[in-house]
Amino acid sequence: MTNLYSTTTCARLPLGKVAAITPFPARPNLVGMTRSELETQLLAIGTPEHMLHLRVKQLWRWIYVRGCRDFLAMDDMARSYRQKLATSLSIHVPSLTKMQISAGGTRKYLFRVGDGHEIETVYIPETDRGTLCISSQVGCTLNCSFCYTGTQALVRNLHSWEIVGQLMAVRDDLDEWQANPGAPKREQRLVSNIVFMGMGEPLYNFENVRKAAKILMDGEGISLSRRRITISTAGVVPRIKRAGAEIGCRLAISFHATTDELRNRLVPINRKWNIAMLLRALRDYPSLSNADRIIFEYVMLKDVNDSDEDARRLVSFLHDIPAKVNLIPFNSWPGCDYKRSSAERISRFADIIYQSGYSAPIRTPRGEEILAACGQLKSSTLRQQRERLSSSRDTTCPDAPIHIAN
Length: 406
Ligand code: SAH
What we know:
binds S-adenosyl-L-homocysteine
């Protein structure tokens, strides 16, 4: 058993506390809207047409550069106009209900979204970058057999505010907003990279993911480069080309198997779009270049997909695709039948790929003691809630640190 809570405090929620549930305002939320949707909202509250461009610019800065949620504090607009904004519109992000911090500093958040459902977001700090792994759906339809989220049914797609709002809420927690316009910018961003590798299949929620990605990349706001945003897909082939053309960020593919027979079992979407169809779509990915290599994610499952032959077959698929392979040591979860390949096996597998001229980094498992893989915090919370409800002698105190077995 490991005590998951470090002594660091969270800016918004004392560690171990479960937040009280306050409903989100019913007024239209400006977070996640495109500039033209924002203009429509401002027109509706009587903003003169000739002022729209300026107002949107001001609001964009307040919301996405300074992290402001209070219209009344926006002191470059007349007080009466601020009051009108405050009574008609809102600025809100998902609310933090639970957070765990691993010994290595990985932060796992459970956020409550619009209708009370919960989603996960994970922040992974490293020396040269800080990566935020965000969710695109509540649950998932894919049923990948080794994935914990696969054990949770799909509830719904996330709205764009709930996607962008994950980053905004994490910036609150990390205290990473530019509070004053004149203040020097940090040399290095705390959240420098975003990966859509949390719960859900981003290409099954295309419109909202595209909208959110555009906001994340907007140069007058959060301003992340498209090279620092990665969409990971299990292989929704017809949407891959569109993602390249309409979003243009980096692409990762959850590949995981080198025969259709095995991939059908591990990643069942393969029954719809098999390996040959997937590879064809990747060759056509619009922004293909060496700088934008497609990441082939490959989870290492002991005696399932980790043989030398698998490694060689994988390499044979890559010859005309600018690609790199990311080997992911399997992150185990309670009740699953798979095991992680040994360190020696993973390293031998990586060597074969590397010797064929491809980069094949092995992803360092992070935050294992907080079940940092897809869907795991949510599931453990649901389980705890169920156990709490079913136990008549339950003495669990919501304020107490929670211990989860490794
Ligand atoms: N649906 C998308 C994104 C979510 S999963 C996709 O399939 O790409 C993000 C990555 O984590 C995927 O590569 C997924 O296969 C992998 N993954 C899921 N569960 C895992 C686990 N228990 N251990 C290691 N990797 C896992």
